[in-house]
């Protein structure tokens, strides 16, 4: 309803707007390892992120805080050769998105979009829109309009929720406006899984949500600890993987670092296959603050995800949403020891059809992620 009440699309030819996945740097603190360079906000580290993205069919990388002066985007970090990174990304078919404070971008939105679009940058992640009064709303529409003139995408951050802007200016491909996974870097609040299974019923009603999932260091209840350089998630590995299906995010982050993803290639392969936009969505089961099960379809492929709070439970999936015939299902589900080690999972392949039902056990803070093909 929010989008129905908004002004229609004002971009005559939006074909240049390309949603996709993003290898993100800030959450994992640029903490790559087993490399022959000093990891950090520098050119070699970002080439490593680009290589990872290219190898795993990830569309973009973000250069978060540190690539430039926070208040003047024309003052680059001398450790960053932005021109060479953009060119390297082009060679690898990986686009670059730049982080910015709202203040820095608003000072010269037209000039900065013109400059960086000409260099080949695909868009800006605009941060610290920490209110939604009339001034900020008007500014966001103006930023979207000017960015569209330069064919640049925007991801609005801070406590700035979607309010229909993405219908009018679809180059705005995501919004934060949520207590996202970044909080796990400084908080071990045990209510996190309950929060995560509440979001589809509450915050997501308004529109896209940049929660930034994808943690590969997963913790059971009571074992999480705040960490800036080695952040963890609460709940199981499959709980994290299910977020790529359940959470609507046309520009969807991979929050952990490339080294970790390459060590967990089986999970990374599945995440990389999940699209960020869908043709059809079906809510299969759920209860606010307890659990959620959602199926989404892209072209001829179905994706099913489930997440639970700290209560273990059995979920029965009714496959009646499938069409006629038999389908091949690939399922990642909590392992038998996931109650003790949240990284534990099993992968199964089976044949399903619309007349079947399948019961899957979710561990405490658990989940499953499923891909179904004809």
Structure notes:
- This protein has helices at residues 43-55, 82-92, 102-106, 109-119, 134-149, 165-168, 192-198, 237-246, 258-263, 265-273; strands at residues 20-23, 60-63, 68-69, 72-76, 95-101, 123-127, 153-156, 172-175, 218-219, 233-234, 251-254, 280-287, 291-298, 301-308, 313-318, 326-334, 345-353, 357-362, 367-373.
- It is of the alpha/beta class.
- The protein has two domains: 14-278, Alpha-Beta Barrel (TIM Barrel), CATH 3.20.20.70; 281-373, Immunoglobulin-like (Sandwich).
- The chain has a seven-stranded parallel sheet.
- α1 (43-55) packs parallel to α2 (82-92).
- The longest helix is centred in the middle third of the chain and has 16 residues, at 134-149.
- The model has no long low-confidence stretch (mean pLDDT 97).
The total domain count is: 2
| CATH fold-level topology of the largest domain | TIM Barrel
Secondary structure: helix percent? 10-25%
Oligomer: single chain
Q: Order of strands across the biggest sheet?
A: 8-7-6-5-2-1-11
**Could you tell me the strand content as a percent range?**
25-35%
Q: What is the architecture of the largest domain at the second tier of CATH? A: Alpha-Beta Barrel
Roughly how many Å apart are the termini? 34 Å
Mean pLDDT figure? 97
CATH homologous superfamily of the largest domain, by name? Aldolase class I
Q: Could you say which structural class the secondary elements and strand pairing correspond to? A: alpha/beta
Please give the count of helices: 10
> Helix-strand pattern, N to C?
EHEEEHEHHEHEHEHEEHEHHEEEEEEEE
Number of strands: 19
């Amino acid at each position: 309803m929010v989008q129905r009440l908004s002004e229609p699309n004002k971009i005559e030819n939006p074909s240049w707007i390309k949603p996709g996945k993003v290898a993100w740097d800030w959450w994992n603190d640029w903490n790559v390892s087993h490399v022959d360079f000093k990891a950090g906000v520098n050119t070699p580290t970002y080439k490593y992120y680009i290589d990872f993205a290219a190898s795993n069919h990830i569309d973009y990388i973000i250069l978060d805080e540190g690539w430039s002066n926070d208040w003047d985007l024309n003052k680059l970090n001398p450790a960053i050769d932005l021109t060479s990174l953009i060119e390297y990304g082009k060679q690898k078919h990986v686009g670059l998105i730049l982080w910015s404070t709202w203040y820095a971008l608003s000072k010269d939105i037209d000039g900065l979009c013109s400059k960086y679009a000409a260099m080949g940058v695909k868009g800006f992640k605009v941060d610290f829109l920490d209110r939604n009064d009339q001034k900020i709303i008007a500014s966001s529409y103006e930023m979207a309009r000017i960015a569209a003139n330069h064919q640049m995408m925007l991801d609005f951050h801070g406590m700035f929720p979607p309010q229909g802007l993405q219908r009018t200016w679809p180059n705005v491909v995501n919004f934060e406006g949520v207590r996202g996974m970044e909080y796990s870097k400084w908080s071990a609040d045990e209510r996190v899984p309950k929060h995560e299974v509440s979001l589809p019923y509450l915050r997501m009603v308004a529109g896209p949500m940049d929660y930034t999932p994808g943690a590969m260091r997963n913790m059971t209840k009571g074992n999480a600890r705040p960490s800036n350089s080695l952040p963890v998630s609460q709940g199981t590995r499959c709980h994290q993987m299910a977020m790529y299906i359940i959470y609507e995010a046309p520009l969807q982050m991979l929050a952990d670092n490339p080294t970790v993803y390459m060590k967990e290639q089986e999970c990374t392969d599945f995440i990389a296959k999940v699209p960020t936009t869908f043709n059809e969505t079906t809510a299969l089961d759920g209860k606010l603050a307890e659990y959620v099960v959602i199926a989404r379809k892209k072209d001829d492929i179905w994706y099913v995800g489930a997440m639970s709070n700290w209560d273990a439970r059995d979920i029965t999936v009714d496959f009646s949403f499938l069409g006629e015939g038999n389908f091949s299902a690939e399922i990642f589900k909590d392992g038998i020891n996931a109650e003790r080690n949240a990284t534990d999972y099993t992968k199964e392949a089976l044949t399903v059809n619309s007349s079947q039902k399948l019961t899957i056990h979710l561990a405490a803070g658990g989940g499953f992620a499923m891909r179904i093909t004809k």
